[in-house]
Amino acid sequence: MPDDTQVPAQVQESETPKSRLLAWLDAVAKLVGAGAVLAVAMIANTFQSRLTGVSIQSQREQAESQLRANMFSSLIGPIAGPTGGTSISPDREQLIAQLLALNFNENFELKPLLEDASQRIAPKQPVSGTPDPREPLWSVARRIAERQKASIAWEWQGFRNSGQKKTSWRSLSGCCRSRAKAAGGTPGCESVTLTVDAARPLSSETSEQPGCQLVIGLGETVRLKSPDGNYTLQLTLVHPDWANQTVDVVVWPFATKQGRPVDTDTTYRFALGWFDFPFTDNTLLPDGNRFAIYLRLVSPNNSKLTVVAMWFPKGYFTPRERPLNYREVQELLGRTTQ
Fold this sequence. Notes:
Layout: H1 6-80, H2 90-104, H3 111-121, H4 135-161, E1 169-172, E2 175-178, E3 191-197, E4 207-208, E5 213-217, E6 221-225, E7 231-241, E8 246-255, E9 268-272, E10 282-284, E11 290-299, E12 304-312, H5 326-332
Parallel strand pairs: 3-5, 4-6
Antiparallel strand pairs: 1-2, 3-12, 6-7, 7-8, 8-9, 10-11, 11-12
Helix pairs in contact: 1-2, 2-3, 2-4
């Protein structure tokens, strides 16, 4: 009688390597599957975290926008809304004007409101030795102007880092200017501080810009070049009003390659006061250069005042003129500023 117990052993012995291979393949498949599940879970968690972060950021921006909108409506309502035949007091209008200016100066031109509030609290008969009641408004205006200038200085830094200016830069008298020669001539400063001394002897000659900080006399004409050297401002300050702290400005922009302004170049004449801000009171030139002039200091006792003439990065759009970063807009349009 044959021995049946040896057949399964022979079969089991012949199938052992195959069984081991299948076992290894099964183990590898399980590991790969587990790894794939883990990887998918990690990727999903990463995307979910990013989406959550974007969602939270979006919600914060929406909440901030809503808060600012409600704040603006609450502040402007007493001034622009129906008053029922009554008007707010000068002190309350001054407070509202300060709050609006500090929180919304980049997006709205608040000069008419500030001037109205200033006129309502202006002293009819100033008393010598007492502070001017308009000083709180003037102080807020100085704060806003310097804040906006600092913002433009930051934009200049980004402008240089973006590679749009392929020149080297150095610090000079607190401002930056290019060492390279521009097509229109020697470049000028990003901003120039002009100290006007009424006691300084008047010079009949037009002085070219020798630096970023100048001392001139009333009625003295000075020429200030743009950072790229393409444009020049011929600037004169006259007729200061020490009581109301304003000064008349005559500015004549012209292409530097002309050598001097001609009759067809536009001349700007205006009274410069504390409520002229860089973001809202600026001039755009045909080649994309933009400049602003604002008041920094008035000293009636010393018969001196300080004015800042500042240039914006070429092609710059102010916040109320653009929905996006201006450098991104320039890149989308395929434009470069040289």
